[in-house]
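Contributing new records

If you add data, match the layout below exactly. Sequence lines come first and carry their own label; structure lines follow with theirs. Keep one chain per record. Anything else will be rejected by the validation script.
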Amino acid sequence: MSARGGLVLRCYGPGQQLKVEELELAAGEGETLVEMQYSAVTQLDRTVLAGKLAQQLQPPFVPGSEGAGVVVSSGVYAAGTPVVVRGGGLGVSRPGTWGQLAVVPDASVHLLPSGLDPASAVAMLAPALTAHTAVRRVGQIVQNETVVVTGVTGLVGQLCAAVARAAGAMKVIGLARSDESVEMLDGLVDQIVRVDELGQVGRELPWCNAVIDTVGGPVTSGVMSHITPGGRLVALGYTAGEFATLDLHQLIGRDLRVLPVNMQRTTIEAGTVTGVLTDIAPSRVRPALEILAAPQVEAALDLLAAGPADRRVLLDLTRF
């Protein structure tokens, strides 16, 4: 395939030593050339820029592990196809996505569903993969089940609710703290149950088949008494506390399962990314974004380092 020139960000050493340069790129056998629109700035990218991974490329290299754009040339996808790119060592063991163009393995290219804009798709990809794994792979939510999602006002909680709905859940119940606004949950959950400042769950919480628990702590203990026999609790986070008291009488007597979600040990199979994005596309869940022009990459890295854990920072790769 013929080569094309484009501007990229290249790292020349540990830290934020990044320079804008022009490179010629061409896709080889089993590769796709993508014209990039947006790329995420992630904690993985910060780790790679600091030179902390044994398997990573040596400088100079192009960072960036996730992004979205349109296909320029490929043996698999038609030119102009909107895609998300992720996986295959992008930005770690092979050049990444921080450029106007990126050459990526065919297996790292995932179709972008209609109705989901590329910036939102990139920003939500990591938390959506976590939600999808928790709900579909670990929790194995199926049609006609009642599902409770704790911490439902957070981004991951909202995405868990959206995926549960896409999986066919009959009823989705969201748990939120008594002082939290729940306006963003309209149409996403069927019922909201409040949790007080001590983590005590409201008595109006009905029986459910499964709980997707994003907060842990005393909330975990409270929701277990509302799971039907043979049900399961999927443990996804512990922002409300790392320790929970489990009632063994309930656990054994009602044959409950406690299932942890560990994304580091989860293999993302072919087709999963597109499936994840298809699950969340119909929902109105959209993250708060910080989008900066590509040359402002150092400011983007600083924003990520200084911000809350759920902050989403993107580079606009159409602005160099």
